[in-house]
Every structure is written in structure tokens, then in C-alpha cells.
Write a structure and sequence with these properties.
single chain; Jelly Rolls; nine-stranded antiparallel sheet
Amino acid sequence: MSNLKDLADLPMLEIWGERVRARRLDGERISLAVVELAPNAVVPEHRHPAEQLGLCISGSIHFTLDGETRDLGPGATWRITSERPHEVVAGPDGAVLLDVFTPVRADWDTLPLVDPAPPPLWPAG
């Protein structure tokens, strides 16, 4: 198995149905995910043991973390420590986010796959 892949070659997971999907690459102790949010998609409040760092690549999101709410666009980042409540609502054009988790998001192993997966929204073809 190659350690060098294109984003389009990674399986697409349905994280919260067809409105919140992600392609994930796992290392031994870390996960990298490119998350695609449909316009106005909702990621309900949740928490997880994994720490999370993120970057908005395109579009916009309304992000609430630990009770602080901000509108974020391309270049905005977030840091979520273990078990901190957070939720996101995508803007009217949707969004593409880059998220990094440690440890690996093994809880995503049982999520449904999108087959066939559409081409990634980012980078623009």
C-alpha cells in the first residue's frame, strides 16, 4: 500500500449524512480529514476524546466552541482539546475544512461510505 495518495483516492465517509462528509487519512496516532459541508449543513453539538486542530479552506462556518461563537472563513483555525463541546453550521455556500485529530478517529471506522464518491470540492479541479 502506498503512503502517497491523492485526496480523490481516499474513501468518502458520511459523517452526518450526505450533508457532512469527509475523506480521512490515518497514521499510527493521528487522523487527517478533509471535511465537506453542504450549504447550511449542521454539525450538532458533540464532543470526543480526540484533540482536534482545524483550518477553514473555503466557504464559511458559524462555529461554537465552549460557549464562544464566531463566524469563520478561509484561513481561520480552531483548537479543540479533549471532550470540549463544539458545533458548526455551514454558511450559505457550504465549506471545506481541514481537521487533524489525535488519537486516530477509530470511531469513524463504522461510518457509511459514499460509493461512488464524487470528486473533492477542494482543490478546485
